[in-house]
Every structure is written in structure tokens, then in C-alpha cells.
Amino acid sequence: MIEFPATIKMEEGKITTVASFSIDRKKWKLSYMSEKSFGDKIIKDMIDIDLKIIVKK
After folding, report:
1. Could you give the C-alpha distances from 44 to 1, 7, 54, in angstroms and in order?
2. CA 16: distance to chain centroid?
3. Distances from the Cα of 34 to the Cαs of 1, 20, 21, 46, 50, in angstroms?
4. pLDDT number for residue 50
5. How far apart are CA 30 and CA 49, in angstroms?
6. For 12-34, how does the pLDDT look when each residue is reduced to its tens digit (9 = 90+)?
7. Domain ranges in the chain?
8. Whose CA is closest to 24, among 49, 53, 51?
9. DSSP string over 1-57
10. What is the chain's alpha carbon radius of gyration, rounded to the nearest angstrom?
11. CA 41 to CA 19: how far, in whole Å?
12. pTM
């Protein structure tokens, strides 16, 4: 499970949620060519995630 802070706004018949966070992909067993095993910096271990979810009535 991932928990992260988010901003939630309700206005004009819609709900908007915005969040930004990072995860370490190795903790989710996404280890293909990770920085330590591959030896270079092509694929970063940390993944930045930006979410924007809009729900309309």
C-alpha cells in the first residue's frame, strides 16, 4: 500500500484531487536494470508520480 498527501477541492459540480510523490521501484519488485545492478544511471530507482483526478457529477 502507498499512502501520500493529496489536495482535494469540491467546486462547480466536480471534485479535483492533486498529489505528487515518489516511490522506490525496487520495493515493488520492479528491479529491471536498477542503478545498483546495472551500474549506470539510465533507469532511476526513484519514480516521481504526479496525479490529477477529476470527478464530475
Report:
1. 21, 27, 29
2. 17
3. 21, 22, 19, 10, 22
4. 97
5. 15
6. 999 999 999 999 988 888 776 65
7. 7-56
8. 49
9. ------EEEEETTEEEEEEEEEEEGGGGT--TT-HHHHSSSSS-SEEEEEEEEEEE-
10. 16
11. 26
12. 0.68
- Length of the chain as a residue count: 57
Q: Give the amino acid at 38.
A: F
Phi, psi (rounded to 5 degrees) for 36: -75, -35
For residues 47 and 30, give the distance between their C-alpha atoms in angstroms, rounded to a whole number. Answer: 11
The closest alpha carbon to 51, from 24, 27, 26, 21, belongs to: 21
Cell 493529496, located at residue = 6
